[in-house]
Amino acid sequence: MPAPAPPPCKRLGPQCRSLKVTLRVSSNLGTPTSGDEEATWLLGHTERITFGPLWLHEDDLFCRATIHVPCKHLQIDEQGHRCAAWGFRGEVPDQPREPQRRQLGGDRFRIVRAGTMETQTLPQPALSPRRLAVLSQNPCATARCQTSDHKIGAACCRDLQVEIMCDKGWTLQELLVRSRKSPYLCKVTREREDSIEAEMISACGYLGEDNVACTLHGRKRETGQSAKPGLCHRWPHPTEAEVLHTGCVFAKK
Q1: What are phi and psi of 3, to 5 degrees?
Q2: How many beta carbons lie within 10 A of that of residue 31, not counting itself?
Q3: For residues 225 and 245, what is the distance between their CA atoms, to the nearest angstrom?
């Protein structure tokens, strides 16, 4: 497939550093809370995404967001900033970001409930004295898995797939998305008329101090449901036809 054309920009600007988008968080929701786990997971990936307000439209949940991945055509040299596609020169200042903390200390976390980000207390469950020690160990603790930027460890918690609302006629928006710097945003595909999908590297804010263990693991919401979705506490099965990261401890030898 040929490389996409560069966006038809007229000058350097904020689009060189980041991109404002609308994300589809969940779809086909049966109740106002049925997308809470998935939304908590997505809005946890704050390393390169700043999340704005959530809202429900029909049975889909959406979120305003800013993707902090620069354009691949942006170059920096001794003369300042330059667009490699069009030759523009100038200054593109860094955009300050307010930290979006998901761990507030102790048992306090920011999670999604009924389509709204809230602060909740989620006690750590007591460990059963009958549980085998081997079952409490994290098999990923020493795994040499890596994301496509070659960073080692917790690859499953540092990359994700996002659905960006982008009608098929929104040519400029689609070109801006497709021009982001790889591998931090890449593999852009269109499966629907109103949106495109992409893979991103943006670490989860619920990772613990070791950058591997999940601080939400085992914690329950006030309803008794898990604080995080099933995909976060189901180990990959080696017989399943799923793509695993390089060095994944569950990959076939």
Answers
A1: -65, 140
A2: 9
A3: 29
The sign of the torsion formed by the CA atoms of 63, 66, 68, 69 equals positive
Q: What are 214's two structure tokens?
A: 């999940």
Q: What is the CA radius of gyration of the chain?
A: 20
Neighbours of 20 (CB within 10 A): 14
Cβ contact 204:155 at 8 Å? no
**Kind of pairing between the strands at 116-121 and 159-165:** unpaired
Torsion of CA 247, 251, 252, 253, to 10 degrees: 20
* Residue 99 CB contacts under 8 Å (≥ 6 apart), including other chains: 46
Is there a contact between 64 and 43 (Cβ–Cβ < 8 Å)? no
Distance (Å, whole) CA 53 – CA 67:
14
Residue 253 has pLDDT above 70, yes or no: no
How far apart, in whole angstroms, are the C-alpha atoms of residue 211 and residue 153?
A: 8
| pLDDT band for position 29 (cuts 50, 70, 90) | confident
How confident is the model at residue 24, as a pLDDT?
97
Task: Return the residue matching tokens 């980041």.
Answer: 18
Secondary structure (3-state) at 31: coil
Q: What is the DSSP string of 179-212?
A: TBPTTTEEEEE--SSSEEEEEEE---TTB-TTSS
- The helix or strand, by DSSP H or E, that contains position 171, with its residue range, turns out to be helix 171-178
Burial annotation 161-187 (CB, 10 A radius, 16+ → b, else e): ebbbbbeeeeeebbebbbbbeebbbbe
Please, are residues 210 and 176 in contact by the beta-carbon 8 Å criterion? no
Is the pLDDT reported for residue 133 higher than 80?
no
